[in-house]
Design goal:
The protein is an all-alpha fold and about 240 residues long. About 75% of the residues lie in helices and about 0% in strands.
Length: about 240
């Protein structure tokens, strides 16, 4: 940068004093000759000019002595940060194979889990249907049991009515009828008759028929599966009763 040298004050002061001296000489000559303005006014003008000039020179000297203004400093731009190194280490072939195997196993496990969930949902739906079916069958069973009980009660009422009829008859007349009755009907009637009435009827029946019906009646009452042995002396026992 080009630097302007500061002006020196001494030459300027000498030049100013020389000008004032010349001015005063000119004033004196004019006064002596009688032409020109008055000495007092000339002196005042010269003094004012001399007084006005030094401040300008001093101001120029002061301005020249000051150092030039420093240029404005530009903000420093920080250098760009270096790129961050890659933190992920390279994957080897064995690791890739292991990751692929794990991924396949995970997919297989997911498929198995989905299949198990589907089976469980099917089983739950099947259990619900079976539970509803069991409830229906239980209700039907209770209904059938009620109908069976009503039927048995009805049959029992019918057998009791028939028994009363035979109990009201004379033993000989009842025995004549019993000799021709089938064994299942005869067993049902004799089983419901009072023991005294049944003994009187059996005593009046055919001995072979009475023996057979006594054996069947005993088997029915005891609940034995095998046929009972022939009972000897049943006729005398019945007759004795």
């Amino acid at each position: 940068m080009l630097t302007i040298p500061a002006p020196r004050l001494l030459p300027a002061t000498i030049a100013t004093l020389a000008a004032l001296l010349l001015l005063k000489c000119g004033v004196l000559l004019q006064a002596a000759v009688g032409r020109g303005p008055k000495p007092d006014s000339m002196m005042v003008a010269a003094a004012n000019a001399a007084a006005a000039e030094p401040p300008k020179e001093h101001a120029k000297a002061a301005a020249g002595s000051l150092p030039p203004p420093a240029p404005a400093s530009r903000p420093k731009t920080p250098p760009p940060a270096p790129p961050a190194p890659d933190a992920t280490p390279p994957i080897s072939e064995s690791e890739k194979a292991l990751l692929q195997d794990l991924r396949q196993r995970r997919q297989e496990l997911d498929r198995r889990a989905d299949a198990i969930a589907t089976r469980e949902s099917v089983l739950v739906a099947t259990e619900k249907r079976l539970a509803a079916r069991v409830t229906e069958l239980q209700a039907l069973q209770r209904k059938l049991e009620g109908l069976d009980a009503a039927q048995k009660q009805k049959e029992e009422t019918g057998w009791q009515g028939l028994v009363k009829v035979y109990e009201a008859m004379k033993p000989r007349d009842a025995a004549t009828i019993f000799n021709d009755l089938s064994m299942p009907v005869l067993l049902q009637v004799l089983d419901r008759m009072k023991d005294a009435k049944a003994a009187s009827v059996l005593a009046a029946m055919n001995p072979d028929k009475a023996r057979d019906v006594t054996a069947e009646l005993a088997q029915m009452r005891t609940g034995r599966d095998a046929p009972a042995a022939p009972v000897t002396g049943s006729k005398s026992n019945v007759a004795g009763n």
